[in-house]
Amino acid sequence: MKMNAGFIPALGTPVDENGIFLPESYEKQIDDMLEAGAVAVLVLGSMGMMYAIRQDQYRSVVETAIEAVGGRCPVLVGAMDNSLWRVKERLRYLAGLDIDGIVLTPPYYYASTPDELVRFYVGVAQVSPYNVYMYDLPVVTQTKITYSSIERVLAETDKLKGIKTADQALGRNLILSKNIPSDFSVIYSGLDTVDIAYRWGITTYLDGMFTCTPRLSRILDQSLRTGDYEKAAEYLDKILNLRTDMAKIGIFNSYKHAMNILGYEGCHAPDYCFRNNDEDYEYTLSIVKKHGEID
Predict the structure, then answer these.
(1) What pLDDT score does 213 carry?
(2) How far is CA 252 from the centre of its chain?
(3) 132 near 183, Cβ under 8 Å?
(4) How far apart are CA 88 and CA 192, in angstroms?
């Protein structure tokens, strides 16, 4: 199944101070994202703290997402890890759940050689009952997924169904190539240039910032769909400028407060990344208003 044109939110995962998942907050976030026009959701990606969530909470997060979505859009789930053994363990937590695919970066503790990268993804496809999506994140994994690697994996399995990447040139090559299956999805994750990539034909795009900007994201998406690229650029800039201001006190710290301001209970950040103080809350409230997400 190829992903539809439009935006995919990398959902934030709400937990309490002990790391216990808060399902009602998650359900509200998902409903708001779908109301804003999301064409799919990514559960437990980077913004969703896949790498930090307690293992005993992992399945509950996915179950809640499936129930909240209720068949309205595809559900992708992060299953990143550093060996096939550990990926198999994650798949056991997902056993029997009706999801549309798993998303994995390359192993991220050590850099992988091209051959190791191919063996990893082929190995995942061999043991996974779900479709597989690559997550190209070289700034973290120290490993760049290349066109050649994708072709090599596709030669070994038909379960590879797409890639999330911020590499415009790679995305463009994949879209234009006659050697890539027609149901292979290119999901663009370069938020800063979403509007440019869209005009290049890379029309499915993903980021975590959409979850704390449902109003702005809806207008961005509608503007791209109607070809109003000037308005799209205006609203993309609002999201980017909000992100810049959030970074001044720490992205995850400010993100936690932004999500609370929008009515989503919980921490939404690794336990060492946020401060519960009035000053940071008020600062975040001011910038969320400044950039037009709330009045």
Answers:
(1) 99
(2) 15
(3) no
(4) 35
Indicate whether 275 pLDDT > 90. no
Burial of 98 (0-12, 13-18, 19+ CB in 10 A): exposed
Measured between alpha carbons, how far is 202 from 195 in angstroms, rounded to an integer? 9
Q: What are the pLDDT digits (tens) for 233-243?
A: 999 999 999 99
Closest C-alpha among 73, 65, 90 to residue 12 = 65
DSSP letters for 149-186: HHHHHHHH-S-EEEEEES-HHHHHHHHH-TTS-TT-EE
Class of residue 93 by CB neighbours under 10 A (exposed 0-12, middle 13-18, buried 19+): middle
Distant-in-sequence contacts of 26-29, Cβ < 8 A, 24+ apart: 26/61, 26/64, 26/65, 26/68, 27/64, 27/67, 27/68, 28/263, 28/264, 29/211, 29/259, 29/264
Burial level of 155, CB count in 10 A (0-12/13-18/19+)?
exposed
**Residue 142, helix vs strand vs coil:** coil
**Contact by Cβ (8 Å): 224, 198:** yes
Place of tokens 């207008």: 219
pLDDT at 31: 99
Domains belonging to the chain, first-starting first, are 6-228 (3.20.20.70)
For 146-165, how does the pLDDT look when each residue is reduced to its tens digit (9 = 90+)? 999 999 999 999 999 999 99
* Percent of the chain whose pLDDT exceeds 70: 100
Q: What separation in angstroms does the CA of 246 have from each of 207, 240, 285?
A: 15, 10, 10
Rounded average pLDDT over 116-145: 98
DSSP conformation class of 101: E
Q: How confident is the model at residue 70 (pLDDT cuts 50, 70, 90)?
A: very high
